[in-house]
Amino acid sequence: MSARLILAVAVLCVVLPGCAVNRQKYDWGKYDPSLYAYYRDPAKVAELTESLAAVVKAAESKGVPVPPGIYAEYGYLLLQQGKSNEAIDLFKREETHWPESKIFMDRMIKVTSVPAAASSTKSASP
Q1: 47-61: b or e for each residue (b if 16 or more CB lie within 10 Å)?
Q2: Is residue 83 situated within a structural domain?
Q3: Which SS3 state, helix, strand or coil, does residue 90 take?
Q4: Inside any domain, residue 122
Q5: In this predicted structure, which of 15-19, 32-36, 48-52 has the lowest mean pLDDT?
Q6: Is 121 among the domain residues?
Q7: Measured between alpha carbons, how far is 56 from 112 in angstroms, rounded to an integer?
Q8: Which of 2, 31, 75, 102 is deepest in the core (most CB within 10 A)?
Q9: 101 to 85, 91, 111, 118: CA distances (angstroms)
């Protein structure tokens, strides 16, 4: 082999990986900016809720995995809005898609399933 051929192959081996496209594994949509906006102004909870819903809808329509934690965070926001049945459904979906979250999601489901009257009675007891 000539020195030029070896040099050309070496240059290609160094240069070509730089041309590779860095694709993200998950489509986070507008999650980051809406989360930042929510942290700066908690009144923007509707924007964050819409953003999470859009991430879930986009991923499910494309048949790709929903990013980790999105179902859970979306469910938690719905729970804060009093939509416990929808929240439980999202917690179960998080558990199904991300088995490592099972213990936490089971706890969230259990806490969410407790009727409000029973939980207020427990906290009022000494």
Answers
A1: bbbebbeebbeebee
A2: yes
A3: helix
A4: no
A5: 15-19
A6: no
A7: 21
A8: 75
A9: 19, 9, 15, 26
Please count the structural domains in the chain: 1
Mean pLDDT across 59-79: 95
> Which residues constitute the domain of residue 98?
49-113
Instruction: Produce one character per residue of 83-119: b if its CB has 16 or more CB atoms within 10 Å, e if not.
Output: ebeebbebbbbbbeebeebeeebeebbeebeeeeeee
Assigned domain for 21 exists: no
Give burial (CB, 10 Å; 0-12/13-18/19+) of 45: middle
Phi-psi region of 17 (alpha: psi -120 to 50; beta: other; left: phi over 0): alpha
pLDDT tens digits, residue range 71-83?
999 999 999 999 9
Answer whether 55's CB lies under 8 Å from 67's CB.
yes
